[in-house]
UniProtKB/TrEMBL annotation, chain A:
Pfam families: BPD_transp_2. It comes from the Bacteria. Belongs to the binding-protein-dependent transport system permease family. LivHM subfamily. InterPro entries: ABC_transp_permease, BCAA_transport_permease. It is found in: Cell membrane. This is Branched-chain amino acid ABC transporter permease. It is a multi-pass membrane protein. It comes from Aromatoleum diolicum. Keywords: Amino-acid transport, Cell membrane, Membrane, Transmembrane, Transmembrane helix, Transport.
Amino acid sequence: MDFVSFLIQVLNSLQYGLLLFLVASGLTLVFGIMGIINLAHGSFYMIGAYLAFALTSMTGNLMLSIALGVPLAFAFGALLEWLLFSHLYKRDHLEQVLLTYGLILIFEELRSLAVGDDVHGVAIPAIFSASIPLSDNLSYPVYRLVISVVCLALAGGLYYLIQRTRLGMMIRAGSHDRDMVKALGIDINVLYRTVFALGVALAALAGMLAAPISSVYPGMGSSVLIISFVIVVIGGVGSVWGALVAALLIGFADTFGKVLLPDLAGLMVYLVMAVVLLWRPEGIFRKG
Amino acid sequence: MKQTQPQVRRIVRKTIALALAAVIPALGAFAAQAADKVKVGLMLPYTGTYASLGNAITNGFKQYVTENGGKLGGHEIEYFVVDDESDPSKATENASKLIKRDQVDVLVGTVHSGVALAMAKVARDNKTLLIIPNAGADELTGPLCAPNVFRSSFSAWQPAYAMGKIVADRGHKNVVTVTWKYSFGEQSVAGFKEAFEKAGGKIAKELYLPFPNVEFQPFLTEIASLKPDAVFVFFAGGGAVKFVKDYDAAGLKKSIPLYGSGFLTDGTIDAMGGSGEGLMTTLHYADNLTNPKDQAFRKAYALAYKAQPDVYAVQGYDAAQMLKTGLEGLKGGKFDKEVVAKAMETAKVDSPRGAFTLSKAHNPVQDIYLRKVEGRENKLVGVAEKALADPARGCRM
């Protein structure tokens, strides 16, 4: 591998890692803070992508679709929390797994009924459709760089929200001791509903942003679900920074694994996970 | 209570089994009296990713039966339908159910190669006739071939092999291949490699990624630095769309031509949004064949189902044609699978794709077309290989 290729592979790793972070961030919120094992997280990603497809075919503009789609996803998340997830906090993980697995099946079938099983594409917004030449024959789509920037901005925003705002403080307190927070007169139900809806909105946003480059197809949710869990576990459950670092680590492992050890490419991600967990069983950034 | 439940269940199950044991022979006798009805078990995906393929195959099959007044070779056709969900772990059970419970005479299925491999095993064990209307795994008419197993579609080897020669003929000497690391992808690359190397070409590198991973960026970077004359890929569905779009967005399409086997551009052109334009692929069907059979077929299909037929519908239609030839062998007599299989071997199928016969291993000996994406169609460029037969390596029959 020559030096230019190496640099481009580094760029690939960063870009893939950041996209993974976007998907995993919602999961780390819901799993880490609310303690809910949400297998349906991938479905929200899928729903986001299909929303982007449906809204873009109506409005003809991806950015407008995202502006419409994110509040829709947030509202949908709040509704789901009120209807289903709010009954799960006191139950054990097995019941959460059952419910959320059931949701995967339901969402897949609904998707199949509503839009069918064909593969669809979403156009990249015209202003980002250019490519930057990197070497004599390879160029890099601007849209991929835009996604990376958005992901970085979101990472910063989430960090600020959770560490620096009053809402974030309540969320952190709620994750430690639900009853104590309640006793202090904070409406924990509203708090949890907000966090869950935020998690759904983040997953859907990831799906919407990824739709133009990944295309929209049945089963796309399950492909991101496992890798998201890997990231959350490596990064330390509930830690936004942890998820970011873990996502970048996975981005590098996957990219360079494919190029340098093609026979082990499928294993690479899990090898990294095993090594990290041996070194730090609680994940990289798990705090007490 | 909990402990007695299994017991209760066992008793209930026994009772049902006894009742069935009493009823089924009676039903069997009844069926025998009705003499010439033939039971066809359609085991295809009706839910999940491949649902549209399963439906197209079913539509094609039923269309041919309807064209023949509901009868094939004088025998009325009765359908038993099972959704295989493209789930290999349920395949054996589903196929056994059709054979043992519904007592089907002929099994038709399926799309997913993993499921089809399990079905072929059940069919071999029970000596039930099986017609495979899509699954392209080489093994089905290779090491696993059997007197009672037939295929109306293609083998992974066929379109890929045809493309190997085309790419060499077009002056490309040095090619990189990319596919998923699963059997269909590997078989496609092997077929391509065989023909390409025979024609003097060299494979610079074979790139594989785990199925169904679609993060292609590292490979595109590697292709750009290897600078081959051309790239050959096998992908299908969402992966095909994403690869073609990424390849275009990376600017590689301009400098390194991309070729594909089979389904890279089938049912995916719209989603590619222009990135697929000009792409060349090989398959046993194309969008604007000029034979009258295809035109009649397309017209009738569009009228019956309010949708345009695709290669899957053709494969379903031809499965029914093959069965007709088989049943004609009975000459109106009782169903005898060995007679039907023998007759089916000699089938000359007047397919919408162009007439084909069956190889010794029961795979179509067919023309493979070179197609080029123009607009929303896979336009016919020419015949890549005339009457190409799968080598059926490992088939001892």
